[in-house]
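Lay summary. Proteins are chains of building blocks that fold into shapes, and those shapes determine what they do. In this project we predict the shape from the chain. Here is one chain we studied, written as its sequence of building blocks.
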Amino acid sequence: MRFPLSREWRIFIFNFVFAAVILDSRLFWKFFFSCRNLFRHASLKNFAQKGYNRQNHAEIILHKLPVVVIAGRPNVGKSLLFNRLCGKRASIVHEAPGMTLDYLAETALLAPGCAVEFIDTGGVRGEENDWSEDAARRMEKAAEFADVFLLLADARAGLRHGDELALAMLRRRWPKTPRLLLANKSEGMSEAEACTDFYALGEEIMPVSAKRGGGLAALRQKLAEMLPAATESQNAAPLAIIGRPNVGKSTLLNRLLKEDRALVSPRPGTTRDNICAVLSSRRGEFLLIDTAGMRRRRETADQNLLSVSAARAAVARASAVFLVWDMSEGALYQDKRLAALAAAAGCGAVLVGNKSDLLPAAHRKQALSRQVRELSLGFEARSFAVSAAAGKLPETGMLEAARRAAAAGRVQFPTAQLNRALSEAVRRNPPPMSGGTRPKLRYIHQGGRAPLRFIIHGGAVSRIAEDYRRYLASFLARRLSVVGAPLRLDFRAEENPYVG
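And here is the predicted shape, written in a compact code that computers can read:
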């Protein structure tokens, strides 16, 4: 027998009837929890009606702005056009076809008051290969958000079978979505020469040159007319996910977003571009950036150098990073290099030991503490042992740690508080003698934020040993409750008024 009511309502009515007959404490608590689940379900349903993700209350920025999806067969210049329209090198451009596997999303202004989301997709292929099925699925997922399709073709190569396949797919799957056919690589060609082969497709066509920028002003004007105006939210804190290849960065991104956003494969090097998605939660709004795995330079192929450069740029841009490593392999040399990269960039850090389910449960806590020490990050940071593939991760705790790490580097401390902390540090452990002279640390003040920078004035500060400098940085971080952000100390020697 099928009930028209939901499961939560059936449990509610069942417990209510029995509680009315026999007023028992056990039934009362059943009644209480069924009510709580019922109203929670209703709340999530209300969120879903407002455009929120039911699973994690995440609101993706793609749902807030008009979306332009760039499609076409491989190697016609989609990524180059994407970079041109976004005004930055967000997507990797290479002569080898099939470089873009995941869809990439970036926000740009077409005109004042007209912000749109551009999506770069993988090429539509007529043949099968290792990535075609997953890449096609992600392309179709991105196309679901489209308000306009830009279908790229190669004006120099003329009309090809791949162009017809791509157009046929758009007409079949999304017949009501407007389309604009672009004849790319038209530099040095007249409009008639660039567009003649494509008139047979029966679509509105424009000649452009993504390489030289030709025709892009007219394209922006055309898109501004086709799309409604929208404004962009700038509140998301950039949060990069970095690590060696194949440690589970993309799986972690998918778990945090509660969707299959990034391509996941056991084959290293799956992620090539920086994959961005905005996540709004109770802990704040984050721009999650999944980066390519960074390996040693001598192990990096030519086309992967661009991926590594993009990953390094994401670290420089981020307010905080999730440093991910494989706990089953331990903290390797490249993991330590990445920890040093995050510390040198001055951004906050949260340490994430992935694949912890491959270790015995009794040894995970001890292994995490040991591997965190081996990473030698240089400052105190929160650490988590997770299993992204199995879904065992404290999402709320990780996002809260990232929020605090990003905020810790932007605090402005009173000078009096800094000087009290410095005096206590010197009283507990004075600077060691060097060359018959003990350095004098007189006062301290803040010299910058993000990263935190403190300037200490005194005498003979050039003779302060490196281990004492580390002691001061560690003591000040503990005394000022700075967790997850690097702290830099600059020493300035006072001039001797009796010299000269």
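What the prediction tells us: DSSP finds 14 helices and 15 strands in the chain.
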